[in-house]
Design goal:
A 7-stranded antiparallel sheet has the order 1-2-3-10-5-8-11. Strands 4-9-6-7 form a 4-stranded antiparallel sheet, with no helix packed on it. The protein has 3 domains: 2-148, Sandwich (Jelly Rolls), CATH 2.60.120; 159-202; 213-267, Homeodomain-like (Arc Repressor Mutant, subunit A, Orthogonal Bundle), CATH 1.10.10.60. The chain is globular and about 60 Å long. The chain has 10 helices and 11 strands. By secondary structure, it is α+β, with helices and mostly antiparallel strands.
Length: 268
């Protein structure tokens, strides 16, 4: 929805992950009445200053602030200056949070302003913008672990369980895997699986999945498969998602890589 005088605000569901919604607001100048959400929510202020009343306290959130709200927490919000403010929010259903973190934890404070909290929030938004369900699960789990102040999991998963998880990712790397399903496969909690898998294989399950997808994409490109078909076959929503990951892994786009490969092959 657009409000010419009040800035712009957009809501959307995060594809592939039930129980997760996202908001993006740019130069917002309207004020929200006192209300509450049935979800956990956290965000990141990118520009301007927000005035937020929660209980008897009025808070001011400048750029770099990560505001946090527990389910049922009454609050309002509005611009602290005439210029408005820009921010993003993620709304996490309690059932989704429980599957990632267990129990019913609560955010211990209204906001954080440290670099770790900002980085974790950015990673969650980055994954929600352009990630696979497994990548969103991982980034969201990391953000919630930090913002909720959850203790690190003790112990590690056994090698056989980790091997089963890796074999499943190998076999289904282009499918929309979910962290909860891999945890069931291994018989451990999300925190233990993420740490143990990264320790054993040098990558989190999501990064491992992306490496497998990239290897498959290269084989398809070498076979002359059109790039939109490569993206679909590798489990990406569109070619831009394929481009993004290919650039991260190989330092170039699939189109440039294909042209170089075909040129080299033509010289032989």
């Amino acid at each position: 929805m657009r409000h010419q005088a009040d800035g712009e605000i957009r809501y959307r569901r995060v594809p592939g992950v039930d129980g997760l919604e996202m908001l993006r607001a740019d130069r917002l100048r309207l004020s929200f009445d006192r209300h509450f959400h049935e979800t956990y929510s956290f965000g990141l202020v990118s520009d301007g200053v927000e005035r937020c009343g929660a209980g008897r306290t009025v808070n001011f959130y400048e750029p770099g602030t990560v505001p946090m709200f527990n389910p049922g927490e009454v609050h309002d919000g509005g611009p602290a200056t005439d210029e408005g403010w820009s921010y993003r929010m993620l709304y996490v259903e309690p059932a989704l949070l429980a599957s990632l973190c267990g129990g019913e934890p609560v955010f211990p404070q209204a906001a954080r302003r440290d670099e770790l909290a900002r980085r974790r929030a950015r990673e969650a938004f980055d994954a929600a913008d352009c990630g696979s369900p497994l990548g969103i699960d991982e980034a969201l789990r990391g953000a919630l672990e930090t913002l909720l102040g959850l203790p690190e999991a003790a112990g590690t998963a056994v090698p056989l369980a980790l091997s089963r998880v890796r074999e499943r990712i190998d076999a289904q790397c282009c499918e929309p895997l979910r962290l909860r399903d891999l945890c069931i496969e291994a018989g451990v909690s999300p925190a233990r699986l993420l740490r143990a898998f990264a320790k054993a294989y040098g990558l989190t399950p999501h990064r491992y999945q992306q490496s497998r997808r990239m290897a498959h994409a290269r084989r398809l490109i070498c076979a002359g498969t059109p790039l939109p078909e490569v993206a679909a076959a590798c489990g990406y929503a569109d070619q831009s998602h394929l481009n993004r990951w290919f650039l991260r892994v190989y330092g170039t786009t699939p189109g440039r890589w294909a042209r170089n490969f075909l040129q080299d092959r033509g010289r032989r």
